[in-house]
């Protein structure tokens, strides 16, 4: 079965981007509110963060292969900010059930139209520069995911002992030519205290960015094998019953 892998470049005809845009940005309250969360605010320039995210996504895939996943409460505002995207780009969650069900639904729908799809999952409120470097790294991650049939995460080298992020502990190198350098993951670690974060920095751990790249079919296989509470609900998606899938997730 596919294993988790980390990777440090060009998009192909099967690259798809899923932008997770349903968060409420509670840590930024009162600047960020449920009706106008962080991703809809211009916190890093003149445009909302989600608009910058979609601009980065365009370096990976064309508009027709970009999906925005959010609940109905935010979809109207997202459509106004991203009015240039075609209507099928917006996937409206029937209920908020977290990242796992959202990504599973997106992977299912994308795999249905493109059985060879490689899915890139991005958060809508990140600041990442420069876009060219980002696109090259994602391209390398997509090649690793496709050729090695692994699930890939794209971590960030830390520059300080940060307690607000999760960490990735790299393991042995995965055989891949440069620049597609990748490592198997030994473990994921939740947000540490200051002493532990300092040790992680010294031992070469990486920040978990929450950016993932995988073949849609490989991800769905992993859901079936390792998240049976969600995997058993795939029958609802097979029948076109997304609302029932989310109701039971």
Topology:
Layout: E1 4-7, E2 15-20, H1 49-57, E3 66-71, H2 72-81, E4 90-93, H3 99-113, E5 118-123, H4 131-148, E6 151-153, E7 167-174, E8 182-189, H5 194-202, E9 206-207, E10 212-215, H6 216-226, H7 228-231, H8 234-238, H9 242-248
Helix pairs in contact: 3-6
Features:
249 residues; alpha/beta; ten-stranded mixed sheet; globular
- Second-tier CATH architecture of the largest domain: Alpha-Beta Complex
Distance between the termini: 24 Å
CATH class of the largest domain: Alpha Beta
How would a textbook summarize the main sheet?
Answer: 10 strands, mixed
Mean pLDDT: 91
List segments where confidence is low: pLDDT < 50 over at least 5 consecutive residues.
Answer: none
**Radius of gyration over all CA atoms, rounded:** 18 Å
Count of individual helical segments:
9
CATH-assigned fold name of the largest domain? Spore Coat Polysaccharide Biosynthesis Protein SpsA, Chain A
Count the domains.
2
The structural class is: alpha/beta
Q: In percent terms, what proportion of residues is strand?
A: 15-25%
Secondary-structure element order, N to C? EEHEHEHEHEEEHEEHHHH
Estimated helix fraction: 25-40%
Structure explained in plain terms:
- The protein has 249 residues and is α/β, with parallel strands linked by helices.
- It folds into 2 domains: 13-146 and 213-244, Spore Coat Polysaccharide Biosynthesis Protein SpsA, Chain A, CATH 3.90.550; 155-208, no CATH class.
- Helix content is 35%, strand content 20%.
- It has 9 helices and 10 strands.
- α3 packs across α6.
- The longest helix is centred in the middle third of the chain and has 18 residues, at 131-148.
- The model has no long low-confidence stretch (mean pLDDT 91).
């Amino acid at each position: 079965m596919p294993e988790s892998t980390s990777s440090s470049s060009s998009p192909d005809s099967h690259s798809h981007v899923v932008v997770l845009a349903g968060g409420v940005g509670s840590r930024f309250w009162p600047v960020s509110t449920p009706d106008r969360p962080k991703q809809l605010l211009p916190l890093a320039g003149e445009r909302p963060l989600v608009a910058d995210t979609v601009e980065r996504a365009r370096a990976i895939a064309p508009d027709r292969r970009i999906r925005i996943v959010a609940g109905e409460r935010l979809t109207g505002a997202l459509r106004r900010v991203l009015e240039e995207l075609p209507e099928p780009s917006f996937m409206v969650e029937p209920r908020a059930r977290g990242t796992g069900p959202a990504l599973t639904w997106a992977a299912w729908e994308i795999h249905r139209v493109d059985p060879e799809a490689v899915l890139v999952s991005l958060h809508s409120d990140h600041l990442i520069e420069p876009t060219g470097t980002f696109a090259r790294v994602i391209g390398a991650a997509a090649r690793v995911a496709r050729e090695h049939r692994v699930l890939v995460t794209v971590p960030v080298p830390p520059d300080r002992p940060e307690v607000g992020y999760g960490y990735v502990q790299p393991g042995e190198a995965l055989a891949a030519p440069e620049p597609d350098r990748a490592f198997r993951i030994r473990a994921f670690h939740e947000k540490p205290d200051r002493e532990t974060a300092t040790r992680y920095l010294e031992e070469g751990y990486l920040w978990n960015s929450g950016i993932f790249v995988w073949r849609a079919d490989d991800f769905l296989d992993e859901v079936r094998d390792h998240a049976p509470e969600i995997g058993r609900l795939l029958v609802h998606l097979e029948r076109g019953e997304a609302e029932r899938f989310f109701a039971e997730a």
